[in-house]
Amino acid sequence: MKKLSFLFAFLLIISCKQNTSEEQIPVEPDNGIGDGATPPKVFSFSENIEEAHNKAAFMNQPAVAFDINLKFGGQTRLEGRVTMTTNSTKVRVDKADGSSIIYDGEKVFMSPDTSEAKGARFDIFTWQYFFAMPFKLTDPGTVWEEQQPKMLDSISYDTAKLSFKSNIGDSPDDWYVVYKDQETNRLKAAAYIVTFSKEKEKAEEDPHAIVYSDFKSVENVDIATKWSFHNWNSEDGFGEKLGEATISNIRFFDPKKDYFKAPEKAQEVTK
Q1: Of 79, 133, 214, 246, which residue has the fewest beta carbons closer than 10 angstroms?
Q2: In this predicted structure, what is the pLDDT of residue 169?
Q3: Which of 71, 86, 79, 189 is nearest to 128 (CA)?
Q4: Ramachandran region of residue 45, left (φ > 0), alpha (ψ -120 to 50) or beta?
């Protein structure tokens, strides 16, 4: 019995050594180039976009503010200044009419309390997300599904579908089909559905898309200063133009302690 035990242990050691040598294939530290250089990092679809827009520089800033002029059907939908922490944990929208929407990290408020609150939650979360989208593609809870390249203005773009795990944000059933520029790796466009206040099946009957253009470098961060909104479907792609937005006066800064605190006379917005 001892001889059999010894033989089994010997064979087990030999087997482990063989497996180890087969699995641990040596790789040259210079990737075979011969100059000792570190192999380049392999980025995923989403990481490529974040790298192209310089997410590291964006996230290194405490907060960013920008003016927005948003129009649909020729009518002004939103005009004012959006301010947000770069991790989107706090947001405020100061409208041209003097009213403000504030997300303090837990609740949404409208000030003054006599202001029309309809659509406030949509405004506080949607427009800042479209602005920060190139820097949020690897956030916790994001799920990616690579798709075939799609055409936009006779140019082919790499695409992938972005969805979210349950309990992520106000509308976890939202999804995006993200278009990546094959030459620059920047975010070119994103088709999307809006499930806020509606069922997913209903939202999927009417998808739309945003197209980004006129990129500007601010503190070494690439930011699109023109947006256009379109009808969209998976078969035909981009359709009629519905609206547009101009982004200007972009500034990174360190906000004061109570910058995102709602005033005393403000109403909480719950839906």
Answers
A1: 214
A2: 58
A3: 86
A4: alpha
Tell me the chain's radius of gyration from C-alpha atoms. Answer: 25
Neighbours of 185 (CB within 10 A): 18
- Give the list of residues 6+ apart from residue 63 with CB closer than 8 angstroms, or none: 83, 84, 85, 86, 252, 253, 254, 255, 259
Q: Which letter, b or e, does each residue of 107-144 get, where b requires 16 or more Cβ atoms within 10 Å of its Cβ? A: ebbbbeeebebeebbebbbbbbbbbbbbbbbeeeeeee
For the whole model, what pTM was predicted? Answer: 0.82
CATH number of 45-269: 1.10.260.40, 1.10.10.10, 1.10.285.10, 2.50.20.10? 2.50.20.10
Q: Where are the domains of the chain?
A: 45-269
- Alpha-carbon span 137 to 153, nearest angstrom: 24
One-letter amino acid of 158: D
6-10, 116-120, 149-153: range with highest mean pLDDT = 149-153
Strand partners, 83: 65, 92
Q: Does 15 have pLDDT greater than 70?
A: no
> 219: buried, middle or exposed (CB in 10 Å: 19+, 13-18, 0-12)?
middle
Q: Which of 215, 209, 208 is nearest to 247 (CA)?
A: 215
